[in-house]
Each structure stands twice: as C-alpha cells, then as structure tokens.
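Possible regression after last week's pipeline update?

I re-ran a chain I had predicted before the update to compare outputs. Posting the input and the new output here so someone can diff against the archived version. Not blocking, just want to make sure nothing changed silently.
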Amino acid sequence: MTLRGSRLAAMAGLLLCAPPLAAGAAHVNLVKIDGSINPASSDYLQNAIAQSEADGAQALLLELDTPGGLLVATKDIVQAMLNARVPVIVFVSPRGAWAASAGAFVTMAGHIAAMAPGTSIGAASPISASGEGGSRDADGKRVDVGLEKAEKFTTAFVEAIAKQRKRNAEWAAKAVREAEAVTEDEALKLGVIDLVAADTDELLRKVEGIEVEVAGKKVVLHLAGAERRRIEMPPLTRLFSALADPNLAILLVTAGMLALYLEFSQPGMILPGVVGGTCLVLAAIAFQILPFSWVGLFLLLLGMGLITAELFATTHGVLLAVGLLCMLLGGTMVFDLPEVSDLSVSFWSVLVPIVAAFGLFAAVVVFAVGRTLLLRQTAGVDELIGAVGKVVADLDPAGKVFIHGEHWNAVSLEPIPRGARVEVTAVEGLQLRVRRAPGSP
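New output (post-update):
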C-alpha cells in the first residue's frame, strides 16, 4: 500500500470512528409547569412532546409544581403522555413543590415519576369551579349528584392511569375519594412514584439503565451524560396561562368597569378608557380559556350596573345594596359549571374585598354628590340670588346696580339712593329684583 493510500485509509477510519455531529447528539428536552393545569399549559406540554419526538430527544423531562387545574386540560395532557413516542419523566420539584389534584394525574402518567425532597402529591378529589367540594351523608357518599358523578369518573380515570404505568391504583383511588395526600417518601414506599432525587442531575443518574415501555416498545434510558435543552413557554402561551386564573379574571372585569366609568364620567382623560378597555379585552380572553356560566357573568355585570345606577338615582342605598348582593352571587356562580376543576374564585380573599371596594367607591361618590347638592350654587344666573351689590343709578323703583363686576337693570319695592348696598332677591330675565342690604344706610 502506498503512503498516500495509507493516509486515505487512516482518514476514513477516523471518520468512521468520529462521534456524531452536535445536532444529532443525545439530548433531553426540559419543560416546566409551575402553575395551574389549564388549556395553555396543556398546549405547551403537548407541543413539547411533539417537538421531542421530532428532534430525536432521548426523553422529555417535565418539572412540575401545580395546585391543580381543569379536568379537560389534564385529560389532554395525560392522553398525550400515554401515547408519546418519547419517554416522559415527571419530576415534582423544586423542594416544597406540589403535585396536587390534577398534578397527581400528570405525575402518575409519566413513564418515570420522581419527586424532590420536601414535596407532596395527592388530594385529587374533584371540586366545582366555584371551589365547592360538596358534602357527604352518613355513609360517606356525596350529597351533590353532579360531584358524585365526577368523583366516580375521576376515580376510574386515575385508576386506569396507575394500572397503565403499573403504579399503586388503590392509593390513586383514595387520592380522589378521600383526598389522600402524601410526602415524597410515603409516595415512594406506596409505589406511587419510582424514585426520589434531590435535583435534575441526580434524577438523570438514577434513571440511567432503567427500562420503560414507550409506544409498546421497551426502551432503556441512557441519560446520564445527555445534553439538556430547555423548551421555553412562548410569551403568548405564558400570557394565556396567567389569564387562566378565575381570581385574575374577576379582578380584570371589575377594574375594567371602574376605569370605563371614570372615562365616561370625565370624558377626555383617555388613560382610564385605555386601561379599562385593555382589562376587559384580557378578561374576555380569560373567559374564553376558563369554563364559565353566562348566568353568573350576567349577575356580576348586573350588580355593577345597579351600583352605577345608584350614582344617578336617589334610592337611598337600595340599588347599592342589591347591586352588591348581585355581585357576590354572580362572583360565586360565574365559574360554576358541571365541569370539575381545582381553579376557583377565592370568596373571602378576593371576591369580598372586590365587592367591598366597589361598594365603598360608589358610596363615596354618592356622598360627595349629595354634599354638592346641599352647597350654595356658585355658577349660573341663580347664583346671583343673595349676592350683594352697589346701586349706581337711583332705584325709584327702577335703576341700575353693580354686582360681580357687571351692571344690571334692577327694581326695588322702595326707593334706594345711589351708593347704597342692595341684596338680590330674584332674577327676572335680564332684570334683578333687589332690596336694601341688611346694615346698609
């Protein structure tokens, strides 16, 4: 073999033994959900799964910290995870994080379920979107038929997830029926999760060599030295996720209405109109994301309308009281649909302060308007009544007087000489009726 041939052979050998290009290097995609489970976060995770399948990721790691969310959004996430063609690892982190309610469903649906120290999982009992969990009778059954129906469905749903992933289905059912919740150590002992890890590094080391079933095929995980690529939530999706909060939606509606009232009562201010319009647009987006009741929304807006009407009608507080009642009732009903959810309007910490602030604002305005009605008029022709001026042409009985920098024709019942002080008693067209001012000679 010639020297040139030897060199070519050596180069070919190096190329064959060379590592793959960076673009094809083994990598793990990372996503994070640290809020409610809602349609926005559901789309985010489903898109991340699709992207991970498309770019050849070795796994998708979901860092989860959630108080719960909408059942429909949870169902979409679970369905995407169960049918994923890439391993999905759910890691409840950081320390102190929750996988509450809907989060328990998502955690157990992962190919690998892990938790950080100091975290908890469970309390998956269904509640209405108004925050009510329903009462139970002596036998432990729910009195609310709708919630009992939802409980049975969610129990079957979580049991199916647990069995699919070979996890503790009995505990999963308790998490729904009895709102059972456990720490990471208890979850590991009960077979709810697969392992406990302090951080992502330890987690990837611990899953090294574990075999999981992905789309009907056995896959051995080799993630210890894999590159990590974070998939960020798009700004618009992040906005939608933030708006998927009933408390924020109520705040946006009330703030928008107040701002528009200020704009209409003081035209030309512009800023309140812009702020009010923006708040109502964002509220409309929130109501498109969240399941809501038209009856509740109507009562909420009716209450605001009645409170506003109190500012223009003298009802001695009747419209104000009815409006406040309608706002409270509508606020508790606005997200009260048969669909179960862990998102709710906080009655005492959000709804009551909002209604109280709205009522206080209206009361202050009514009080201020009432005071102005009791004040003496300071503008217009009628404000001349009671004014004191000086006679500039003898009144016998008609003459001229000088009042407020103007000369007026005036008439008096008695003769009043020039230079005397007079008081206006009436305005008759362009003529004043006057009398001698008290104390004037």
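Follow-up from reviewer: compared with the archived run. Residues 252 and 282 are 7 Å apart (CA to CA). Marking as no regression found.
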